[in-house]
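step 4 of 6: structure.
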Amino acid sequence: MTDPLSTTLSALADPTRRAILARLAAGEATVNELAAPFDISLPAISRHLKVLEGAGLISRGREAQWRPCRLEAEPLKAVDTWLERYRTFWEGSFDKLEAYLNEITKGDGNGRQS
Amino acid sequence: MTDPLSTTLSALADPTRRAILARLAAGEATVNELAAPFDISLPAISRHLKVLEGAGLISRGREAQWRPCRLEAEPLKAVDTWLERYRTFWEGSFDKLEAYLNEITKGDGNGRQS
């Protein structure tokens, strides 16, 4: 059995599926609306939606004909939480850069008293 | 050709590979050190490391015998940047909850003047 975070990351590992989520971040949309910007078949879009729905990244309305898709952000929040411990790596680099810039700016101030 | 973000997310969609990254977040390690906590073969670990290396999530030393692995956080930063636009969804929910809690706390203060 696949763990939920792996299922989420696997569902996100596709540019079309990420584009679908980006569209849904702007509001609900039908399958036809979601398919419009892509040069792929409606069945292919449906397969992508099934993967996203399986990962809990989208939910779909109950209406038989017009089943709007909506973004469910909870699994993305889990990715964000997982990333937390690694954030120090690039934030740390920025701190070092800032310290360095402060250092050379200070040096500059002392040197040139114009 | 797979885009870099999809390659990263696909490499992360495995609990063993995420555990390897978590170990490397604490510092460099050899393949043997990385394999120790897992009940899987050394070749299986090597395959996981190849996937992580292919995604640029780890790099390996040049020494023939002792090739330490190290975490490369740059691809994770790209995931963090991609998540940015979705962060408003759960941060927004917290804001709404906070507003609601402020509201009922205020109501409480006006109601019971004990």
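step 5 of 6: annotate
 - Chain A touches chain B at residues 3, 5-7, 9-10, 12-15, 18, 21-22, 25, 71, 73-74, 76-77, 79-80, 82-83, 85-87, 89-90 (CB under 8 Å).
 - The helical segments of chain A are 4-12, 15-24, 31-35, 42-54, 74-111.
step 6 of 6: archive
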